[in-house]
Amino acid sequence: MIKKVGFVVIGDEILNGKTADKNINFLAKSLDEYGFDLVEVRVIGDVFDTIVETVKHFSKKYDYVFTCGGIGGTHDDITFACVASAFGLEIEQNQEALRRLSAYYKERELPLTDTRTNLAKMPKGCKLIDNSISIAPGANVENVYVCAGIPKIFNVMLNDILPTMQGGIKVHKYTIFKENLSEGTIGDTIAKIASSYDDVSIGSYPKFHDNGFSTEIVMRSRNKKNLDLCYKDIKSYIDKC
Amino acid sequence: MIKKVGFVVIGDEILNGKTADKNINFLAKSLDEYGFDLVEVRVIGDVFDTIVETVKHFSKKYDYVFTCGGIGGTHDDITFACVASAFGLEIEQNQEALRRLSAYYKERELPLTDTRTNLAKMPKGCKLIDNSISIAPGANVENVYVCAGIPKIFNVMLNDILPTMQGGIKVHKYTIFKENLSEGTIGDTIAKIASSYDDVSIGSYPKFHDNGFSTEIVMRSRNKKNLDLCYKDIKSYIDKC
User: Fold this and answer.
1) Does the distance separating the beta carbons of B41 and A41 come in below 8 Å?
2) Is A38 close to B16, i.e. CB distance below 8 A?
3) Rounded CA gap, B21 and B18, in Å?
4) ipTM of the complex
């Protein structure tokens, strides 16, 4: 059974264009490598009810859910409270998170302000996700991984989580890239070949350069035998073009 | 009344990590500039029912909807058919689109294959969205703008559409950027100030560099008077830190 994943990107700064998201592609590539299917991404703002409803919906709909953003300690960081609410949990001062943060700030001679202790106000009973960059941990509640929005931190969290996820089934793939060949020229035949391979997903991606165009055909499947056959068919056709 | 916008990014290649989306940030920045609120983005795959349902839902929920991706002429391009289905329209060979495409390919001495005429199979009665890069037009049906996924083409389409959209109300903003000041240090006071300005959205964005950290405070509002007051409060506090 293929494991499906949903991703919720949380943050007004993505929606108003201040910040360009980098996490979608990192998560997408990582999940693909581990054999999980990313099925849907939603980008939503820092709005309590919207976050709660989206997390609830995704947790039921997908095998695994990731969120990023909104887990800092400032007034606009509400993701932990939303995830707690989605699962009917209380928010509590997580003692292990507080211990890590206290040690981190003590070493740096920084006072433990409310904003800093807020970082440890997490859903009751959550598992911590380590953060080797700025210490403040993420939270795992049931099938939801609540991660930081800052790409560098999101990446280290993800690299810890992925090897612990169960049930990935590797997707095999081939790519054929051809300069000066337009998809308009080869598309009719590719469509015919595609119709003979139900379990191979064939993507056709045109590129427009200043001096011409090219086409990339990507074949993906978990059925290696059919993928190999499909690749042979397309390769031998493209070689003749 | 603030106009709300939803954006549907369509394409397996975004979800499997082959391609990093560039359109979300371009649309987000452009809408912000014109005074529209991007409220939600969904990234979904090349799946007929999912696209139909998402377009239907967004068209009802938001004042304007943009889609990108899946309007090429190959077998994996199904967005026009999905949008037609969402509005109960037929797909027809759009005569003006076909005229433009025929002229374009004739000039380049390229045959009018099915894949190329497919580019003109559009929802009946749609308005065309010009494409000065590769000619194949996008489609406007009711409040939905169906655009190309290739960023260069998405951008030219958007630049045509935005000035025609009605009802934008400019958002005013201030940004304060401070090196070597952590949001953990200033967050408690910023939270207090934020609580006095309901109609000013204040975002606090930490950055971690190799040699330290910094904080960016972004204040945004359509109420210029309150924004100015809020900015003065925060600026005078930060200057003292």
Assistant:
1) yes
2) yes
3) 10
4) 0.95
